[in-house]
Amino acid sequence: MHKPSPKNNEKFLSQEDFIVSKTDAQGKIIYGNKIFIKISGYEESELLHQPHSILRHPDMPKAVFKLLWERLKSGKEIFAYVKNICKDGSFYWVNANVTITHDSNGNVIDYHSVRRKPSKKSMDVIPKLYEKLLGEEKRSGPDASMRMLENILNEKGVGYDDFIFDLQH
Ligand SMILES: Cc1cc2nc3c(=O)[nH]c(=O)nc-3n(C[C@H](O)[C@H](O)[C@H](O)COP(=O)(O)O)c2cc1C
Description:
Helix content: 40-55%
Bound molecules: flavin mononucleotide
Number of helices: 6
Radius of gyration: 16 Å
Strand order of the largest sheet: 2-1-5-4-3
């Protein structure tokens, strides 16, 4: 899998952009809309059937993806801020809503992610928060970083979903 070196060049979504992708039950990309492909810098053929982690930026704490997959495995959707890396090492931030399609027996058919431009308010908070979580992950491991996130939310007296919702609205 292509592993670009991160560079300090941010790409921005416009207010009207919706970045859409679908993955199979294993998290491999099976569809991406035009803007998803364009902003990534890859050809469609380079993205299809690749794990979604092809866009994983090293600044992202593991705790966020752990939460994402825990939610999805328990049948629930999630909203999350994600920093993604492009083929050329540039990055872009999104507010992603990841949802599940089930068949009539409750089995997972696929997952969809719809991403929008993150709010100004969220971008004053989330990059600093993720930096803290990543620092803790590097010092004491991913579980400690997850506990740090839980403690920060407890101190604020909000659950994860309300925290994310308030930042976006
Ligand atoms: C529908 C869907 C969309 C996803 N979108 C992204 C994404 O845009 N960027 C990303 O880094 N991970 C995304 N993920 C999470 C990845 O599957 C993966 O958990 C994450 O990149 C961390 O990779 P790792 O577990 O190999 O460290 C998505 C997962 C699903 C199910």
